């Protein structure tokens, strides 16, 4: 009864396959990476048989490319890269692990693992660092361009109010000082020394603001 209920699910071929890692990276300058290990897990209550296929079998040696995994156990699959040449740098190869129940031939599940040969681990780290720097510069450039119109508005020149205040201060400094009897300007336009000092101070601030823009 239990077998009859389980088999309809298995024959659909959707059985999840648990493999770690899902990506293999080989480095040409590091011989220790020329040998990688895939671990196939069987969390089920029945045994599985497996088979390892590869898109480029002439480049790799797979130790125990076929075998069985006991229930709730795991098995290590050793993969060696045997064709480390520059013409293979960056080429993505694929391994496919097919699993089936021991009493059946049809694959119940499959999982793909990608493999890549890179020239150097240091070069890979350098490329990743350069990529991060480029991304940072792109974000900074985008941020700068996003706020560029506002900056142009602010730095386009002094506002009309600033110019008006500057003209008023200059005019105030040109007016006669209180006590200047010989001036032809009406007395109510005569300014005190303190008033002229305030006008001069404001004019200085306006000048500094204009020079900074």
TrEMBL record:
Organism: Pteropus vampyrus (Large flying fox)
Gene: MOSPD1
SUPFAM superfamilies in the record: PapD-like
Purpose: Plays a role in differentiation and/or proliferation of mesenchymal stem cells. Proposed to be involved in epithelial-to-mesenchymal transition (EMT). However, another study suggests that it is not required for EMT or stem cell self-renewal and acts during later stages of differentiation.
PANTHER family reported in the protein's UniProt record: MOTILE SPERM DOMAIN-CONTAINING PROTEIN 1
Residue ranges of domain MSP in the record: 16-143
Claim: Hydrolase is one of the keywords in the record: no
Residue spans crossing the bilayer: 160-179, 191-211
Pfam family, one: Motile_Sperm
Gene Ontology cellular component annotations, sorted alphabetically: endoplasmic reticulum membrane; Golgi membrane
Keywords of this entry: Endoplasmic reticulum, Golgi apparatus, Membrane, Transmembrane, Transmembrane helix
Subcellular location: Endoplasmic reticulum membrane; Golgi apparatus membrane
Superkingdom classification of source: Eukaryota
Keyword Membrane found: yes
Membrane topology field: Multi-pass membrane protein
Name by which UniProt lists this protein: Motile sperm domain-containing protein 1
